[in-house]
Design a protein that fits this description.
253 residues; mainly alpha; 80% helix
Length: 253
């Protein structure tokens, strides 16, 4: 199981990196919205702690999308004025604040479950609408290994310490902007703010598929078998990703 934990997400990250090489940061950002991190992390914590824990973690991941989008939009805005170091410091600070706010929001009315939907709409209305750049880019050797290592570390930390973290924090870290931060920083360092805007534009659209996955999993896990719940959540995620593809093509054109 440990071998699976430290290889599954890095392999998914590798595939995303190859797509970025071939098609640019906007496509990579959009594809990173597919639950390549949330799916295995929530699967592992469910296998370790049961369906109720997994459902609560999926709800935490659902709320975590607000913090995730806050991170992405903050980095996008800061990249126009600051270097990558201050962008990442400020963006992670915003993520931390929003994560704490969302942890508290889970204890209030069921209507707070609409907050991620509202954040998604705001992000869609805010992302850059320029055409995707088709410029040729050179890629540094350390970019992909750094992303794969970050994915492996996040997987081990969340799964090994999920019981101590609790279901809500485990879920919140399932949507931690690990891929988003590495994509944003690497593009910022190598290609500048324009590439960051493109990556965030793609991520803002692709995040719908993670949201669909987490919410369906949260609803189904307490009442259905684990594999059926994960299977249907993947169907919902794939459907959402297909729908955002239409928006993606429209904005790219």
């Amino acid at each position: 199981m440990l071998l699976l934990k430290i290889t599954l997400i890095p392999l998914a990250v590798l595939a995303l990196g190859i797509m970025e090489w071939l098609h640019g940061p906007r496509v990579a950002g959009w594809l990173s919205g597919f639950p390549v991190v949330a799916f295995p992390l929530l699967l592992f914590v469910t296998l370790d702690h049961g369906g109720d824990f997994g459902s609560a973690s999926a709800l935490g991941a659902w709320y975590g999308l607000v913090a995730w989008l806050s991170f992405a939009m903050t980095y996008s805005w800061c990249s126009r004025h600051l270097n990558w170091f201050w962008c990442i410091v400020i963006s992670f600070a915003v993520w931390t604040v929003m994560a704490l706010v969302m942890l508290e929001a889970q204890q209030f009315s069921v209507w707070t479950e609409l907050l991620p939907v509202a954040a998604f709409i705001v992000a869609l209305l805010s992302y850059p609408r320029g055409e995707a750049s088709d410029e040729q880019r050179e890629h540094v050797w350390w970019g992909l290994p750094a992303r794969m290592l970050a994915g492996a570390v996040l997987t081990v930390v969340v799964t090994q310490f999920s019981e101590g973290l609790g279901s809500r924090w485990s879920g919140m870290f399932s949507t931690f902007p690990m891929l988003g931060s590495v994509i944003a920083v690497s593009n910022h360092i190598q290609y500048g703010p324009r590439a960051v805007q493109e990556a965030v534009a793609g991520m803002s659209m692709g995040i719908a598929s993670i949201g669909a996955f987490c919410f369906v999993l949260y609803m189904l896990l307490p009442n259905t078998g684990m594999w059926a719940a994960f299977g249907l959540a993947l169907v919902a995620s794939s459907t959402a990703h297909a729908l955002t593809y239409l928006l993606f093509k429209n904005k790219k054109a």
